[in-house]
Amino acid sequence: MIETEDLRKEFRAGRAGIVRRRSGRAVTTAVDGLTLAIPPGRVTGLLGLNGAGKTTTIKIIATLLRQTSGTVRVDGLDPLRDPNAVRRRINLIAGGERMVYARMTGRENLWYFGQLYDVPRGVLRPRIDELLALVGLDAAADTVVERYSRGMAQRLSIARGLINDPAYLLLDEPTLGLDAPIARDLRRVVARLAREGKGVLLTSHYLAEVEELCRHVYVIGDGRHLTEGSPAELTARTGCHRRVRVTVAGHSARVESAVAAFAGRLGARADVEVAENGDMTVSLSHPDEIAGPLTMAIVDAGGTLAGLEVAEPSLEDAILTLNDEAGLVTA
Ligand SMILES: Nc1ncnc2c1ncn2[C@@H]1O[C@H](COP(=O)(O)OP(=O)(O)OP(=O)(O)O)[C@@H](O)[C@H]1O
């Protein structure tokens, strides 16, 4: 289990050119009292807007940054006292960063990183083959990475992150900028690793990805814990409702005012968007079954239905609501 307790990280801006407060040096509190648990055999999510403190938290756990206060334990080990033992148990994959060497082949990269982790040669050789197969790069194993597509390089990064057979994998935006099918393949690999017993900490701006993979999610804002739970619990707790979207052919002021009156009677707010072709899309969230009465109101006002969609509340709805409630805005 990875556990953090009351973790706190302040950055002090000391370099020239950075505006200082009159009281002294400017301080940014990136992580402000986070207590997290990342058990084995599960994908745990860490969500927050830009600047919420996710990457800083991950870097502290990965021994790349030192906390200002609070503790981290990795299977009971303190990264400050036993960094090497902790590094053998964890690995980090950050989507936005190039973490493999372009001039080497995929296999050479894995060999190089395996040696950095002191993986015995007899273990490393078969492990490289297994990992190349796991991420679907066996055919490209001996091609230099500069000839890889972005998705292939990213998959190689995943294999690199597994080269020391870590018990815990820290994934910071692992599918950033990847095409949908490649991202989906990566998600399958991550789900499989968790099923096989690895503990995974995932940050991602793709909330559908978090919803699919994570059994437990921490939501943070301005470095602080906002809430936690399974995606379903978070959605239920924030009181998000099913959203009904009705598309009406052509724009009609009469339909629009009928929709506004309908929403007003429910004490809800209807969002109306008008597309370039003039079609109107009305969307409304409510706990009751409103698809029928809403479409009736539209038809009664002379509208012609062109589409109807009922979407269950998503983690994205919940996170938007939480951030609104906490008064947070994107950095
Ligand atoms: N090296 C640093 N020096 C000073 N401030 C920093 C440093 N690294 C991060 N910060 C600040 O700490 C806060 C948290 O940043 P962090 O990168 O951890 O957030 P994040 O949640 O990962 O954001 P994003 O989603 O944009 O990646 C931000 O206000 C950021 O500007």
Index terms:
331 residues; alpha/beta; Rossmann fold; Alpha-Beta Plaits; 2 domains; six-stranded mixed beta sheet; four-stranded antiparallel beta sheet; 11 helices; 35% helix; globular; binds adenosine-5'-triphosphate; nucleotide-binding; ABC_transporter-like_ATP-bd
Strand order of the largest sheet: 5-6-7-3-8-9
Q: How much is the average pLDDT?
A: 87
Please name the CATH topology of the largest domain: Rossmann fold
Number of strands: 13
Q: What's the architecture of the largest domain in CATH terms? A: 3-Layer(aba) Sandwich
Low-confidence stretches: 16-21
Going by CATH, what is the homologous superfamily of the largest domain?
A: P-loop containing nucleotide triphosphate hydrolases
Portion in beta strands: 25-35%
How far apart, in Å, are the first and last alpha carbons? 32 Å
Instruction: Give me the secondary-structure category.
Output: alpha/beta
H/E order of the elements? EEEHEHEHHHEHEHEEHEHEEHEH
Number of domains: 2
Helix content: 25-40%
Tell me the radius of gyration. Answer: 24 Å
Biggest sheet: strands, sense, closure? 6 strands, mixed
| CATH class wording of the largest domain | Alpha Beta
Bound small molecules, by name, code or SMILES, are: adenosine-5'-triphosphate
Which shape, going by the Cα principal axes? globular
